[in-house]
Structure formats: C-alpha cells, structure tokens
C-alpha cells in the first residue's frame, strides 16, 4: 500500500463549529459546506458540523440536493440561488432558502411564484454578486408581492474582512444594515474573518466557512491562536532516499541543487493527489515529525524533500500539512490560501476518518 492518506477529523470540525457558535453571540450560525465541504467531503463535513449550528450553506442547488439525499433535514442556504426555473422548483421541493442576487431571478419568480424563502443579495462594495441598494429595494418590492415567496433577509459579502489594512468592511456593513433596517428584515453578512474580527458585523446570521476547517482567515494570525483545530492531515511515505553531492540537481527542470553532500527523500505524493505543483523549493513538510522542506519540483506522483539533519528511513511518514506543518503555512509558501489546497485534493489519497483526534 502506498500509504498516501488524508486523515479527516469530525471532532475537530465540531470543535471549530463550537468556536464559531461562541463568537456568534445571539446570531444564527450557518456553516458553509460548499465545494464538497471545502474538500473534506460533503457528508462528513455536514454531519460533523450540523449539530453545532443552525443551518448549512452551499453554493449550488445540486449541493443542497446532495445534502437532502444524505438525510440532512437542517435549514439550507443556497448562496448562488437558482440558475433556472427547474432549480427554482427544486429549491421549493428541498425547502432550501435561496439567494436572489439579480433581477433575472426575480423575473423567474414572477413568472412562476414558488414557496421559497429568499435572501436578497445587496452589493455593498465587493462588486461581484448582488444588486446595488436601489435596485435591491425595487426587487424587494416585487418579491413582496408574490404569493408564497418570503423575504427572509438581506445578505451581503465582505471583500476585505481578512485584510490587515481593511478599510472597507465598515462601509459595506453600514450599507447592508441600512437596507435591512429599511426593509425590516434580518441581516447576514459575516464570513469567518468578520465573525472573528468585527463583533458588530455578526448581525442576525453569520456564515463561517474556513475557520470551521481549522484555518485562519488572516495571514498574520495562526489558526492555533484562534483556538481552531486542524480538521485534516495529509501525509505520505518515503519510498526512496538518495545521496546527493554538491552540484547535483533534483527533479524536473533541475530547480534545486545540493550545496554539499546530503540526502534527498522521495515521497509518494504529487499533484495527481492534489499537492500543489507550484509549491516552490523550501515549502515546509515534516518527516517523522521534524520540519524540513521541498527540494525540487513537485511531479504527478512524487515530490522530493531535503533530509539533511533528519533521521529517516524508507517507509517513514511525511506530513504534507496537518499538525506539525499548518495548511496555512503551505498555502502561504505557494502564494495561495488553504481553501484552495483543501478543494484541490483529488480522489486518489485514501480517506481515513479519525474519530478520536479533536
Ligand atoms: C456567500 C459566502 N458566505 C460565506 C462564505 C464563507 O467564507 P469564509 O470561508 O471565508 O468564512 C463564503 C465563502 O466564500 C461565501 O461565498
């Protein structure tokens, strides 16, 4: 057996959800489980989180449908709403709350009113999805005239709540709050970063995602400092150890060269498993619990690590991320975020569910 595995920890997911719940105060908590539970597996993530929260959030109607097929009866929020009339009908059957972000969705509802709860998405400065306040106000009036349609709240999304030099969240929140107050409906705006950082942004409903999966939303603050626990541990085994001399280079493109005699370990994991190919030389890994670094370019089935000063044998375990090396550290070395690392793990690593580690 190759031994390349992704250990998943339901207890840590539940712990992190309790952290979100504690921070939320009186606000309802909807745990975001879109994109296959941020790569952890939709069913595993949803079941581990569901008991600690008030509802679950997904991006797509088929994700909501999958949750119902898994037997989850919780309130569901579909953050991109329905894409067409069939999905609108499906939302009603699934009892899923939908986000309405554009007038064309209201047109569909006017053409065929369905008994659905709607969160009206207002653009407050993210300039991605959502309507400007005036347009949103006009669409709210149309929605309120429709039989069976319930306007549940105003929703917005922050562009920079995770940024060290954030100057935008306050004005985004003020705009969203003004509309919710005017329409006399609840407000939902906070993602993980805002939930942790801005008590005022918690409003009536929060939508944490990444913090539930044990990562920090902030580049300058480690997950452990926020009392978040790793929910996954990605590991593989050493399958060869090669001596190198000064001047020997390793791997495709010869991007790493030994500056003296040493040993390089070959690890049975690569981008075919979802480890990022663009991870540069120096990206941290841990061999037998000791930190070291990538040496050479990541290939499809293998990567290579510097074993200088490390006691290691063929068959020993290498942690790609998890307990010793944080996923956030690897992400930072790769110029990305742990969200992407988690979502990109392929079906190839063996999934092992660890019920005992929290
Ligand atoms: C609409 C919406 N709400 C909440 C979240 C959760 O954000 P985060 O994972 O940063 O907490 C997301 C994720 O991107 C989202 O798209």
Keywords:
single chain; 358 residues; alpha/beta; Lyase, Ornithine Decarboxylase, Chain A, domain 1; 8-stranded mixed β-sheet; 8-stranded parallel β-sheet; 11 helices; 29% helix; binds pyridoxal-5'-phosphate
Question: What's the gist of this structure?
Answer:
This protein is an alpha/beta fold and 358 residues long. The chain is built from 11 helices and 18 strands.
What would you note in describing this structure?
With 358 residues, this protein is of the alpha/beta class. It contains eleven helices and 18 strands. Strands 1, 10, 13, 14, 15, 16, 17 and 18 form an eight-stranded mixed beta sheet that branches. An eight-stranded parallel beta sheet has the order 8-7-6-5-4-3-2-9. Strand 6, helix 7 and strand 7 form a beta-alpha-beta unit. The structure holds pyridoxal-5'-phosphate. Pyridoxal-5'-phosphate binds next to loops. It catalyses: L-alanine = D-alanine. Catalyzes the interconversion of L-alanine and D-alanine. May also act on other amino acids. Its EC number is 5.1.1.1. Pathway: Amino-acid biosynthesis; D-alanine biosynthesis; D-alanine from L-alanine: step 1/1.
Alpha-beta content class: alpha/beta
> Bound small molecules, which ones?
pyridoxal-5'-phosphate
The CATH class of the largest domain turns out to be Alpha Beta
Shape: elongated
Rounded mean pLDDT is 98
CATH architecture of the largest domain: Alpha-Beta Barrel
Helix proportion range: 25-40%
CATH fold label of the largest domain: TIM Barrel
Low-confidence stretches: none
Strand tally: 18
